[in-house]
Amino acid sequence: MIKAGVIGYPISHSLSPKLHGYLLQKYNIKGSYEAIEVKPENLKQEFDRLLEEGYAGFNITIPHKEKVFELAQKRGYKITSIANAVKAANTIYIDDTKSIVATNSDTFGFYENLRKGSNNFKLLNSSASKSAIILGAGGAANAIVYNLIANCQFEKIYILNRTKEKALKLANYYENYFIKNKLSGDELIPFNHIEAIEEITFEIAAKTSLLVNTTSLGMKNQPELNINLAHLNKSAIVYDIVYNPLFTSLLKTAQSRGNPIVTGIGMLIYQAFEGFEKWFGIKPELSSEEFAELTKILLSK
Ligand code: NAP
Predict the structure, then answer these.
(1) Among 26, 121, 280, 296, which residue has the fewest nearby CB atoms (within 10 Å)?
(2) pTM of this prediction exceeds 0.70
(3) Are 241 and 264 in contact (CB under 8 A)?
(4) Which residues line ligand 1 (CB under 6 A)?
């Protein structure tokens, strides 16, 4: 029986056991995936205990992603380039050479959901693609900015955050981070088309092709996100990574004015695939019916 799980604190809210439970059942795998509460002061011991007890690996959620990355760095574990860029790990697995690997699958989850969930996706990879606006500058924003630089062709990425210093810090980080991107071809270059902003001006809104909310605003029990979409380009994709509720007021407003929208649940679903494949040996695939069924299961009480 293959064992995996997710560590976090608190952990009772985690949807990952339901998600992996669904996949284990779909593929008829004799395996388990459990939520494991790990207090910050016990992180190292619990990390070691799980591997000693034969876990194939585990996911890491709030508040441990950065600490696990640091632990992996300190101990010289293998770290994927994505986790290295984002400085946070959400998945641990053992590779073919028996090495412990720390990676970050949030970036893949974000992008796969955008790719599969948006009819206008093609636009983002064409020269018609103009700029992206990222609301928020936390851990999720970091993973997303990395992905947009690596995979898309934006002339400009704008970051707008309540705490401007954090937006500046994130922009500054990627301005100095050497990354292969669609503009550079095979060359590793810093991405200096990124800017922290304090408001979305008419000019910025008009040439936006993607707007992503990465803040926790709009989430159940959180204040609503207050943003004026009046001048937003009508073809801009509006993507909210908040998934509870599935249709946030940002998405409802965007949809009512004709913008294509992408909900956040797919990001959660697709980020799980890498770990599942590494631990249980099968690369998951979901039909649209299964995706809808899983979404319903995840969002049911
Ligand atoms: P984080 O690192 O704590 O960042 C939180 C962000 O939200 C920061 O930019 C913060 O701004 C902003 N924020 C929080 N409260 C705010 C308020 N009252 N007004 C304005 N801004 C506020 O968290 P994270 O890991 O990036 O996650 C952010 C959200 O994304 C959460 O809701 C999380 O559930 C969701 N998420 C979804 C997925 C998915 O799979 N769909 C994956 C990861 C995260 P300040 O810097 O000013 O504090």
Answers:
(1) 296
(2) yes
(3) yes
(4) 106, 109, 136-141, 161-163, 166, 214-217, 219, 223, 241-243, 264, 267-268, 271
Q: By alpha-carbon position, which residue is closest to atom 31 of ligand 1?
A: 216
Residue 223 near residue 195 (C-beta atoms within 8 A): no
- Closest C-alpha to ligand 1, atom 40: 268
Write out pLDDT tens, residues 32-55. Answer: 999 999 999 999 999 999 999 999
- Residue 120, pLDDT score: 66
Distance of CA 179 to the CA centre of its chain: 18
Res 289: pLDDT:
96
Distance 62 CA to ligand 1 centre (A): 11
What are the distances in angstroms from CA 21 to CA 32, 35, 55, 142, 294? 7, 11, 16, 29, 10
61 C-alpha to center of ligand 1: Å? 13
* Residues designated catalytic: 65
Distance (Å) from CA 214 to ligand 1 centroid: 6
Going by DSSP bridges, is the β-strand pair 156-160/131-135 parallel, antiparallel, or unpaired? parallel
Coil/strand/helix, residue 32: strand
Atom nearest to 136 CA in ligand 1: 9
Q: How far is the CA of 290 from the centre of ligand 1 (A)?
A: 28
Atom of ligand 1 lying closest to residue 106 CA:
42
Both tokens of 217, joined, read: 């605003």
Strand 91-94 relative to strand 100-103, pairing: antiparallel
Cα(46)–Cα(51) distance, integer angstroms? 9
Q: DSSP assignment of 9-24, as one string?
A: SS-TT--HHHHHHHHH
Structure confidence by residue, pLDDT tens digits, 170-193: 999 999 887 777 666 777 778 889
Q: CA-based angle 43:106:287, to the nearest 5? A: 125
